[in-house]
Amino acid sequence: MSKLQIVDHPLVQHKLTLMRDKATPSDQFRRLLREISALLCYEVTRELALEDVEIETPVATMVGRRIAGKKIVFAPILRAGMGFLDGLLDLVPTARVAHIGLYRDPETLDAVEYYFKAPPDLGARLVVVVDPMLATGHTAVAAVDRLKAYGATNLRFMCLLAAQEGVKEFQARHPDVPAWTAALDERLNEHGYIVPGLGDAGDRMFGTK
Ligand code: URA
């Protein structure tokens, strides 16, 4: 089974509570999502391999360390995943970005793809799939299926909120993909929304409801 890590850092938990509050307006919601995404990214990238590099400081020659290998790929699932992207690129500005357009069919809650664009050499890179909400798990599973079919072999998944049901589904379908979340909520309601959750992340970000 893949590992689920809950990032319980006080800054993350504080910001998440502000985001859950229905009185928080879209501009603050977006800013908080960007800030939390950088904090989550710090954890998701904690174990990246480093390599030695010789450099010259103004005073002496030394061996420093830098991240080894090819540049990371961030893969936001449209549209709510875009809310994570700026915070991720603040921390890793040289990363590549793969866009995955998936929506949930409101009747079946199945994921339907409408857009896919990724760098061609995914097999040589770490791919971090990002979506604020892991609800049924269908969308996250479909995104990882698609990226694997395109060649990705080293993947991680990052979300803000997860429901038990979605985690179970994701771990069963992609046991090789570790996941990070800020909180694990109780359950889904009959419309597939996380309870207590924060509502529709895309609508909260873009003020579409
Ligand atoms: N997507 C959302 O935006 N919110 C949920 O609660 C579940 C899926």
What can you see in these coordinates?
By secondary structure, the protein is of the alpha/beta class. It has one domain (4-190): 3-Layer(aba) Sandwich (Rossmann fold). It is built from six helices and 15 strands. The chain has helices spanning 10-20, 26-44, 82-91, 138-149, 164-173, 201-206; strands at 4-6, 50-56, 61-67, 73-78, 96-97, 99-104, 111-117, 126-130, 133-134, 154-158, 161-163, 179-181, 183-185, 187-188, 194-195. The strands form four sheets. Strands 1, 4, 5, 6, 7, 8, 10 and 12 form an eight-stranded mixed sheet that branches. A three-stranded parallel sheet has the order 9-11-13. A two-stranded antiparallel sheet has the order 2-3. The protein is globular, with a radius of gyration of 18 Å. It starts with a strand and ends with a helix. The model has no long low-confidence stretch (mean pLDDT 95).
Number of helices: 6
- Output the helix-strand order: EHHEEEHEEEEEHEEHEEEEH
Number of domains: 1
CATH topology: Rossmann fold
Radius of gyration: 18 Å
